[in-house]
Amino acid sequence: MVKLFMETKSPKELAFLYDLYVATDWVERFAALVDERIELPKQGRALYVATGTAGHALALDGREEELRLVCVDENPDCLEIAEAKAMALHQEADFQREDPQALSFKDDQFDLVLGDASLTPPTRVRTMLAEMVRVAKPGATVAAWLPTAASFGEVFSIYWEALTRAGLGGSQRRC
Hints:
Layout: H1 2-8, H2 11-37, E1 43-49, H3 55-61, E2 66-73, H4 76-88, E3 94-97, E4 110-116, H5 122-135, E5 136-145, H6 152-165
Parallel strand pairs: 1-2, 1-4, 2-3, 4-5
Helix pairs in contact: 2-6
């Protein structure tokens, strides 16, 4: 059923649905944990890898005046939404399309590197982390998060809630 839904939506529609449902039901839960544990530098440059529609990144951006935020994601439609949010919030951040496994930045560029690997296929996580470390300055904080341990019920509950809010949680079956 999810595959059928994905095939009937345009990439732009999927980006809006991501922002409305996945970001609010999934990303924000992990972002709260990151916020509790990561101290932002007072100044410099920060990179947010796999920013999605940038809800969490923009919330971080307003905390430190002298910290310049660069947000990257593979999905141009998500980045378009992220840029619109930044404009509406009068926040300055740089947005660019990047492959998290092959970042175009030179080595040792950022004072903080954050990465949301929660929707990254497991086979790509190691390369994403290696790229994040490569572009971080020596001594910089590098942090990534992904669900690594939870009961089936915990993960399924969040996933089911997101599907239900997207109108996909019905009991209809297709043969």
